[in-house]
Structure formats: C-alpha cells, structure tokens
Amino acid sequence: MNAPMTESLSITDLSREFDVTTRAIRFYEDEGLLHPRRQGRNRVYSNRDRVRLKLILRGKRLGFTLSEIAEIISLYHSEPGESAQLDYFIEKIRERRRQLLQQKDDIEVTLTELDAIERQCRERLASLKQ
Questions:
Q1: CA 87 vs CA 2, 83, 93, 101, 117: distances in Å
Q2: Adjacent-strand bridge partners of 38
Q3: Does 80 sit behind a cis peptide bond, omega within 30 degrees of 0 on the bond before it?
Q4: Domain 1-61 has CATH 1.10.1660.10
Q5: Backbone angles phi, psi at 9, to 5 degrees
Q6: Which are the contacts of 28, defined by CB distance < 8 A and separation ≥ 6?
Q7: DSSP output for the chain
Q8: Residue 7's pLDDT is what?
Q9: What is the C-alpha separation between 62 and 65, in angstroms, rounded?
Q10: CB 92 within 8 A of CB 72
Q11: Domain-by-domain residue ranges, the chain?
Q12: pTM of the shown model
C-alpha cells in the first residue's frame, strides 16, 4: 500500500489505495469519520482523511465497532490528546483479546464435541454395515 503524499485525494484515489468501495468511503463520511472538502460536486480528501481511513480499516480488521473507532480517533484531538487515545486503545485491545480468546476456547470445545459425535456416528454406521 504505497501512499501518495499529495495534499488532496479523490474518492477514487482512496478507493484504489485501500481497496475499498467508494460506497464504503461515503459511509464513513456519513458517520462523521471522514471530512472531505468539496470542489463543486467532487469530494476532495486530505492526508488527514487518508490517515483516518487507514485507522478505520485497521480498527475494522481488529474487530472494533465504528463507535469504538470514532472514539479512538476523537480522543487524539482532545485533552490530553494522544496519551488518552493510547490508554483507551490499549483497553480496547485488551477487551478484544479477551473476546477472541473466549471465542477460541468456545471453538475448541465445539470441535471436540464434533469429533466425538462424528466418531460415534462412524462407529454406529460401521455396526449397521456388518
């Protein structure tokens, strides 16, 4: 993902760079996460919007909700700024890790149960074929 360092980007530029649809970008704009300028009918995105889109997509990949992502982004511009943002982000990372570890444990239990049921079914099927 090589980033153009121009000061203004079109929605198509962002769409191509991050491999997302223009519809998704407009959705993030509607949600107040991106703030492009207008030149006539065209949206013009700044490098700040580009960085925000990168953070949004990273947050989505990590499983954060849009409201959590918005909170992380907004904390950067409030007092005490970046330290509050990082404290909040660390807490969200810990919560997400706990959720994923619980899901991992749940999946292991389910896989073990599936193995046992399949083994029982195969044994029963084998006895029926004799």
A1: 29, 6, 10, 21, 45
A2: 43
A3: yes
A4: yes
A5: -130, 145
A6: 34, 53, 56
A7: -PPP--S-B-HHHHHHHHT--HHHHHHHHHTTS---EEETTEEEB-HHHHHHHHHHHHHHHTT--HHHHHHHHHHHTSTTTHHHHHHHHHHHHHHHHHHHHHHHHHHHHHHHHHHHHHHHHHHHHHHHH-
A8: 76
A9: 9
A10: yes
A11: 1-61, 66-130
A12: 0.71
Cα(120)–Cα(35) distance, integer angstroms: 59
**Residue 84 has what pLDDT?**
78
Q: Encode pLDDT of 63-122 as tens digits.
A: 999 999 998 888 776 667 678 788 888 999 999 999 999 999 999 999 999 999 999 999
Tokens encoding 115: 């193995």
User: What is the pLDDT at residue 85?
Assistant: 80
pLDDT tens readout for residues 2-41: 544 557 899 999 999 999 999 999 999 999 999 999 999 8
Q: Two tokens at 106?
A: 């749940």
